[in-house]
C-alpha cells in the first residue's frame, strides 16, 4: 500500500507512525525534559511551592505505559502531584469499596481511571440519576476508553457536560479494518470480546456496519461469563472454532478483560494459522499479534495528563475540555509472527510501518 493508498484510508504516513485526521495530537516540539505537549496547548504553570495536587489513580491490571506517561507529564512540567494508586486486580466491582475507603481520607483533587469499566464504575453513565452514588464533585480523567459516546460516558466528544474528560486510544474501527484489508483481503473476520463491556459491543456493531459495505461477514465470539464477569474459559477453543468457520483474520478489540488473556489468545491463533489484527499496542508488544494500527500507550497517558493539568493548574472545568484521541498512530507489524504464519505484508507497507523483529 503506497502513500496515496494510505491517504485514502484517512491517514498519512509519518516518520514515527501514521497521522490521522482526528484532533488531539501531540506537537513534535518538546517540552521540559523532552516530553511532548499537546498541540496548541499552553504549558501548565507550576504548582505553588510546597503545595501538591492529590491524584487518585485507579488501574485495572497494574502499572502500564499509560500510567507512566501520565505521571511523567507532571514531572516534566514541574507540577507537584501526590499520587495514590489503587489496582482493582482485574475486578471492576472493587471500585466502590476503594472509593469508600480512599475518598474521605485522601480527598483527591482528581481521579484518573483506566478503561471503560473503571470509568463507568467511578463516574457512571451521564444519564444516571443523581441518587445512583457515582462521583459527581471530583474531576475524573480517563485513559483507554474506546467508545465514550456509545457507552454513555459523554453525550459527545466535544463535551461530557459534567465532571469527566479524557483520552481515547483507539483508531476508528473502519480505518483499522481498511488497514487489515490492505495487508490481506478478507471475506470473514473473527472477533473475540467481553459481552459485559459496552465499548466492545459498540465496536462489534461498527465492524458489522463496515463489513456490510464490502460484502464481508463478522464472526463474533463472546467470552464465557461467570455471573457478570468474563472469563478466559475455553478461549483457545474459540480461536480454533473461528478458524474452522472460515475466519481469515482474528480481530482483537480494545477490550479491558481480553487484554489480560492476550498471552493465551496470541499463541492459540498462531497455532491455528490465523492472522491477528490488534487494536492496542499491548497486543502487538506482548501478545504475539501480527499487525495493528494503534495509539502508543505512553502518549495516551501524556494526553490524559495534559487534560488533568488543565483542570488542576488552569482551573478549566472538565466539561469544557474535549475528549480527544491522538492524531499520530503507529502501524506495527511483528515480522517474527508473519514468518511463522507465512503471511507477509505488502512491500510498500514496510515503508511506513514499525517492524518488530
UniProtKB/TrEMBL annotation:
The keyword Membrane does not apply. Keywords: Signal. It holds the Pfam family ABC_sub_bind. Residues 27-46 are annotated as: Disordered. The keyword Aminoacyl-tRNA synthetase does not apply. PROSITE patterns: TAT (PS51318). InterPro entries: ABC_transpt-TYRBP-like, TAT_signal. Residues 1-27 form the signal peptide. It comes from the Bacteria. This is ABC transport system substrate-binding protein. It comes from Xanthobacter flavus.
